[in-house]
Amino acid sequence: MKTRNLLYIVLLPLIIASCKPEVNDFTPSNGSADFTSFVSIGNSLTAGYAAGALYKSGQEVSFVSIIAQQMTYAGGNGQFKIPFMPTEDGVGIDAITENGLILRTKLVLGYSKDCLGNVSLGPVPAVPNPDQATLYTELTTSVAAEGPFNNIAVPGIKVGHLFAPGLGMLNPFYGRFAENPATDRLIDEVAKVNPTFFSFWVGNNDVLDYAASGGIAPITPVEGGVGTGFKASYAAALQTVLQVVSQGIVANIPDVTSIPFFTTVPYNAIVLDDQAVVDVLNQAYTPYNQLMEVNKLPYRITWQLGPNPMVIWDKDMPLPDPFEQYKFRQAKEGELVLLTVPQDSLKCARWGTEKPVPDMYVLTETEIENIKTATKQFNKIIKENANANDLAFLDANALLNKVSTQGIMQNGVLFTGAFVTGNFYSEDGIHMSPQANALVANFFIQAINKKYNANIPEVNITDFSPLILP
């Protein structure tokens, strides 16, 4: 059976620029805020994680690093310590298995050959088949003696993790800079730099983990005690920060279903150009269709020339117990296929046609609705806490939605939700590019300036690097 390529990446010419901040043409001031010492609490987005890993230059151009640099024009002390990774190739967690972590280096744009022998340009590991022991050492070697740190963002954390004693033993990205990984709580790192201003952008993973697992990992429940429920955990975390520093900015959670990790591979990616293959597939699914018809169930699997919806597993299909083994169907328009779906399995192993695509690579309409509901609930909680504590607020959900639906132009650079070519997202389809970090930093700065009547200068987007061609 022949199928056409499922993922096309057309790269526009990209210009590599230096990362030198620029002071805009107005008089900087701190307004009513005190920017002397800045601390940032968050997850991978705040840490500078990008292209599937945490690495030094990504940390250097995180949006909070950019903000900290710009704050020096409005009273900042110029100290923004970061727990840097030791290499530029970086370390990311590819998988968690019974035998431990499988680690990887960052992704870069490069050439690879698929199972059909076709060569294409796309994300590839900076170091193919890296030595796992070396990466593990790089990830777990302590840098605590270099602290305390201003950027205490930790990839992978959820809101409840901020209070977990011994989090450093479970999350090596925190363990590497915690003074006592077996006992320390991440929330207690805030006070160590005597901050006068903070940023607080957490909660993304409370939804993203569910989405990135294809709806298998749980979404954090709204209700429950501190460490369990989102509402109590978020309020308690923010109050703990406010006991140390009273001025800051919080941001809400983007709708993750709009990012390239979920929107790049189309639901109807099975392209058939041979009528004989169409006939064979239709014949093969005749018993399935007859079973559904006899039992008055709405599911049918049919094939035609051209694009066809993938056949997917759907654990939520409302089938009677005797038909558990038939919980598969063709994907519907609007359902999402994850970027991690193995392309060679779709092209050469009959996934999506004779074999249903596993549930972990698909978001069904039910799962998408669960994501949107949770995002709406969490964002309501975040906004209420921002208002109640008189803090600056950034509607990151609206910002990223605009990137995906309309695009944003700044300093002559157009940002869209397209994978790689849209400039906003890095090679992993989730985290931000250097230029996108600059854009997001400017939006944070705008919100801070508005709330505190300050004049922190914005940066010029073109002073930061786009994605780099091989």
Q: What's the CATH topology label of the largest domain?
A: Rossmann fold
Strand order of the largest sheet: 1-6-7-14
Distance between the termini: 33 Å
- Spans where pLDDT lies below 50 across 5 or more residues: 1-24
CATH class of the largest domain: Alpha Beta
Q: What is the overall shape?
A: globular
Q: What Rg, in angstroms, do the CA atoms define?
A: 24 Å
Strand content: 5-15%
Number of helices: 15
Instruction: Give the oligomeric state.
Output: single chain
Mean pLDDT: 93
SS class: alpha/beta
Number of strands: 16
What profile does the largest beta sheet have? 4 strands, parallel
- How many structurally independent domains? 2
CATH architecture call of the largest domain: 3-Layer(aba) Sandwich
CATH evolutionary superfamily of the largest domain: SGNH hydrolase
State the helical fraction: 25-40%
Describe what you observe in this structure.
This protein is 29% helix and 14% strand. It has helices spanning 44-47, 56-60, 63-71, 132-140, 167-170, 172-175, 205-212, 230-242, 260-263, 275-284, 286-294, 343-348, 365-388, 396-405, 434-452; strands at residues 38-42, 92-97, 100-104, 107-113, 119-125, 197-201, 248-251, 270-272, 306-308, 311-313, 328-330, 336-337, 362-363, 392-394, 408-410, 413-415. Mean pLDDT is 93; it is low at 1-24. The strands form seven sheets. It has a four-stranded parallel β-sheet, sandwiched between helices. The chain is globular. The chain has 470 residues and is α/β, with parallel strands linked by helices. The protein has two domains: 38-263 and 367-463, SGNH hydrolase (Rossmann fold, 3-Layer(aba) Sandwich), CATH 3.40.50.1110; 270-366, no CATH class.
